[in-house]
Each structure stands twice: as structure tokens, then as C-alpha cells.
Amino acid sequence: MKDYDIIDLFIKLLSAKSITPDDDGLMDFIADYLNDFEAIRVDKCGVKNLFLTKKFKDGEHLCFGGHVDVVPPGVGWSSDPFVPKIEDGKIYARGTQDMKSGVASFLKAVNETKDFNGRLSILLTSDEEGDATYGTQILLKELKSRNLLPDYAVVAEPTCEDIFGDAIKIGRRGSNNGVIRILGKQGHAAYPKKAINPVNLLAPILPNIAGKNLDSGDEFFEPSQFVITDIRGGMEVTNVTPGMVKLMFNVRNSTATTPDNIEEFVRNNFKDLDYEFDFKPSAKPFMTNPDSKIVKLLVKSIKDTTSVDTKLSTAGGTSDARFFGEYGVETVEFGVINDTIHAPNERTSIEEVESLYRVFKELIKEF
Predict the structure, then answer these.
(1) Where in the sequence numbering do the catalytic residues fall?
(2) I need a surface site. Which of 67, 98, 236, 336 has the fewest CB within 10 A?
């Protein structure tokens, strides 16, 4: 296998058109790149999953996790999104920030590791940007059955905000989606007494639910807020009152609010109405103790490498880190600056990728 430098390896990954759930051959390439690691493949329903592991000694197990899939490029690009373009120290291509920079960095760092006080591994999927049904969680289930779950994990999602090294994520909020249908009786607008207008029923409730916090938050989590995302009803005519109004909402919950709390909040506010309620928790929150070994060593590695002081964050949406958290794996996320993910002309700097690789090398050494 060719001895790639970090930027050549990064460009190799970027050149693959690995739109979810297609890996475009990257799993085979990565398995060959780390051919002295044991490979476990669990492919399902078109999703490719790869776990590479090597036991150096009897110590703890550190895993680097990520995904090789990317979202579709969309429109508005100034160059081919799968032909990486280097300009003014930056590399433009789909997946530069999310998250082939992270994958390239930990692949290179792990490949160069000659000694480690325990077990090193890499977990990759091609279904993070999709439904994630047959991705990381399937592989973790397999690892549990083999007694190979890691003690600690670093998921290399883009986490930095303004400068490289300024933020790592030690947890993520959960995500819960709901649909409430307020039922009434359709009628003629000229005879409101003969109808039951569900808009009138909903109106006095809205101040009690719209934007309401379900908890107070804490040092690391913002309050869990009831966010209304859509309200619609009627036939788009002016002389018929609706028979039903549909309200959609999302709650990004901290560890202080559970799905049961959200359902109770809805029931308490709509208990006097005729309504239907569909509710789907789609992601659980997780939180790694700020005093965890992996948190402290990653913060130290960033400081030693970049001289930047790192804040601990739980901001943003969901990621596959949540699946590690469900299995009790102490998990953190760290990667390049997050400001163009999923956008046209996604890009990151060469300097950031080289720095991320050095941080991961330092973390492995310090571990």
C-alpha cells in the first residue's frame, strides 16, 4: 500500500463519490491501508460497515469513529464537488468538513502507531447522513456480541467554531418529533356557530407551548425547548372553516428531559380537546463526564499541539456519537471548523487537516 501523506490521503477519500449509502470502494481501500489490523465487516441493506482493530497490549480500548458517506452535492458549486480543488490553502470538495478530514486524520495517525498500551480500533459506516438504521448501531451491536466494545471513543465530526481547536463535544441533545391533529367540525364561514373551528381551539393553547422550555438547562446543555415547526389546516379558501389543524414540533432534549416528559407536556396542554398525537423519539441524548480520561487527554492534546484553550460543548444536532453513548462508551467528538457542512463549495484548510492529524497522534501517544 502506498505511503500517503495526510493531504494525499485526504484527497484520495474526497475523490470517492460516496453519497449515502454508497461507499464507492472506500471501505476496501481503508481495509487495505490498515492491512495489519483485523477487519470485521457487517454490511446490511446496501450499507457498508467496517471495524478495524489491533491489540497491542492488555490495556484499555480506544476507538476512532466516523463515516465515509456524504450528502448529495446539490447546486451552486464553482467546481466539481468530487474533484478536490486546492486554492489559497483550502481544499474544496463535498465531505471536506463532514467528515473526511476527520477520517483521513485518524487513519493516518493510527497507521503510524507502532506501540500502544491497549487496543486501538477504527469504526466506519456509510450510513450516517441517511437514516443511520443499518450503520454504526448495527456494528456496535456486533461488537458487543464479540466483547469488543471500546472503553473510549473519539468521533471526528467537525466541532470547532471560530478557530481550530476551540471546541469539542462531550455530549449531544436528543431529538424528538411530534404531530398533533386538533379535530373540529368543518363548516361555512358565514355560520361559525354550526362549526367547531380547531384554529379557535388551538389559539389559547399556543402561548403555553410555543417556545416553552421543558427544563432549565445546565452548564453544558441549553434548555430543552418545545419548538413548533409547522401549523396547517383548511382548504385554502375563505368561506370554509377547517375540520382539522395539524401542528408539528421538535424537541432537542438534554439529559434532564425524557420522551415521557414531552408526552406528558402535550397531554397536559391538550387534555380538554379532541386530538390525535403521533410521537417519535429519534435520538437519545448522551453526556460524557467532563472529568473523563478521554476528555482530559483530548483537551491536553489540543493545547499541546495548537496552544488553544478548548471549551466543552453539547451544541448542534445529532451524530453517531449517540450510539456509542447508548452502549456506555465514554465518547467525545472533535474535528475541523464547522461552517460549510452540507453547503455548496464545502471546504476546509490544509492547515486544519494537518493539525487534526497531529492532535490525534498526540492523543494516542498520551493515552
Answers:
(1) 69, 128
(2) 236
56 inside domain = yes
Residues 331, 188 share a domain: no
Q: Taking the model in full, what pTM does it have?
A: 0.89
* 273 and 192 inside one domain: yes
What is each CA distance from 330 to 169, 242, 255, 299, in whole angstroms? 12, 50, 15, 15
Domain C-terminal end among 237, 259, 283: 283
pLDDT given at position 316: 83
Note whether residue 58 is domain-resident: yes
> Which domain range does residue 19 map to?
6-172+285-366
Q: How many angstroms separate the CA atoms of 237 and 87, rounded? A: 54
Query: Given this model, what pLDDT does residue 317 score?
Result: 81
Residues in the chain predicted with pLDDT less than 50, given as ranges, are none
